[in-house]
């Protein structure tokens, strides 16, 4: 029987080592025996101490972390990505698994039976050599991309998170080296740097590095007038080049750079300037590897050339956030930095997608983020909530213009999903024609919600009125916010209903002052901090902002600070609200990081006494805000 | 032994197929064999149109066994050039083709008493039932689940989402970033349906009140 699925699997695996060494027939023979497994996030593929399975695994989609208990702490020893293979060595050695393999994201795995794989590879010298050498190098991951082709790499087993061993890890170098010949004109060097957005170019002769020129050389030797841009680059390059073999540790590379006062090292085959160039290490690479510096991450985002690269950067942003939380850096600063990084990521994606459209937008537009992102309160990965507003066009062109933006949005939404912003389950995304509207259509939409207001309209308003521009023409979003204030001003009916909805989430504490927990479902006996604590305070902030015409402030804490300014007699109260909103957000973020989720549900048993007290203080403030809303907006009629 | 005379004599393969359903009480549903399938047809008319190909994969536990995939192409009497651009199957293509009866025979042997899964399942099952009926056989006995229903339950229930919306396989595959390489081939679509099944049930199982039985289609749907 024909097996189309096996053919497709063969197509997939053939691009990755060691399968790239096998014949078409062998690939098909292997593919036919594959099992496809779907695993959600945080599930074990195999567990330390478990007897070996009859198959090893290749990642078709997702990511796997290998974890091992070191000194009583579960440490990540390695990470694998799409196309990587894991769990092979224990099968060959017939040992029990020494390490746990865990899905870091939801994953689709191909299980390849050893019984099929082994006879095929024993006939293939290349694969066997590769295997022996990889095993000898003592890595669990013989075929990860970094390892591909590297035979004597003495990579350590512990990856980036472990700060102590970090310094000893080999530097990850850039493999795509941009080079030029000695007789290249200086102006061409400048253009090359601009084109590739890089700060250095290696000058080679027959692939042997003979010099290096950096932007600093251009600044010091050309801009000063010493050399003309028509001269050959050989006149300004530094020579000889500092070379190292690959596998040089981070600390060694860094020390060399400091000692010689240079910002780049060349990686060559044997570590001398007499062998072939295989890569380049820049100071930038090292700082990016540390992943602890927002400015470096920002640069990396702006230079990124693929969605995959952005996805890696996003992971580093999470490490950064983790560090901020650990060091107890004030949340206001933390959220601003994380917001800027997220924002830059989305901007970069939109930029790249516009290029991919191969046609400039027909009219000006703005990409809006709604909800928590719009309020700059999104620290962890959460769903995407976004939309597009575009400038008014003639009736007969409207749909053509909308089609352009829908297509653009489709691309952007898809890539955001890839880097970790889940699709919105309620379809509030720009690729939905309902939320890809012209300025006038948005205004009409808002008019409808505020004039004919039911429960749904209130819910929609509470999502859409907190928008923030992420990309594009700010005059469009400004007009839209002006409009919102125009139609809500003195619209007491709407404001009252909005107030009533702010009270709908019942107080988080029960009659006996115990926490109200979820009654059913996956999160039974957990506390829903979003629904019961964050939403009431956010709703209250929005209500106050709208009714007091506080413009251009979307952040809940800042809204309350503004209220404190406007009503000095209640300053203390509003400031406590501001504090509460920050504290709750921090709570959620901490728990999200701890459990690697969105932090919405909190396990009460895991809270310390101090944390519980802190939460209860927050709830007191919420109760006071709700009392105030009841009085001010004459809510009783609507309850 | 009066009933023996009244009973219509069915071919042996049908009896063998029926025999699978006589097994002892069903144990845990999680341990059952599921078969995700898709049919490509000459069109959408149950009476005029015919099945061009059937593709299927089996799921046991959380695993799809590629070696246990099913894929057949049928000889064609009826042919509608209008649908060729969708499924890409020409009347006399080079793929090995078998008669409708052989196809059904192989299919019954393959599915046994497994629970069938398909996207917009009632269409595929109805097409297969029509083929069975043409051969003088009754409808399929298997339980059937529509992945559309599973997916719809994972969506947020809210008034501003159109409840009547029908999610296409493409919509869902896109939402779940499943590769669409083999769209519109029966085995490709069957695999996508299988992945959607695994993913949606994983999500739905988190609720204690989830019961897969609730998603069995009523037999009057096909």
TrEMBL record, chain A:
SMART domains for this protein: CBS (SM00116)
Residue stretches making up the Cyclic nucleotide-binding domain: 18-138
The organism of origin for this protein: Gelidibacter pelagius
The CBS domain, residue ranges: 173-229, 237-297
Name of the protein described by the UniProt record: CBS domain-containing protein
Keywords in alphabetical order: CBS domain, Repeat
Keyword Zinc-finger listed: no
Highest rank taxon of the organism: Bacteria
Pfam families: CBS, cNMP_binding, DUF294, DUF294_C
SUPFAM superfamilies the UniProt entry points to: cAMP-binding domain-like (SSF51206), CBS-domain pair (SSF54631)
UniProtKB/TrEMBL annotation, chain B:
Cited InterPro entries: DnaQ, Ribonucl_H, RNaseH-like_sf, RNaseH_sf
One Pfam entry name: RNase_T
Exonuclease domain boundaries: 33-206
Domain of life: Bacteria
Keyword Translocase listed: no
MF term (GO), any: exonuclease activity
Matches recorded under CDD domains: DEDDh (cd06127)
Keywords (A to Z) from UniProt: Exonuclease, Hydrolase, Nuclease
PANTHER family (UniProt xref): DNA POLYMERASE III SUBUNIT EPSILON (PTHR30231)
Descriptive protein name: 3'-5' exonuclease
Organism the protein comes from: Gelidibacter pelagius
Organism ancestry: Bacteria, Pseudomonadati, Bacteroidota, Flavobacteriia, Flavobacteriales
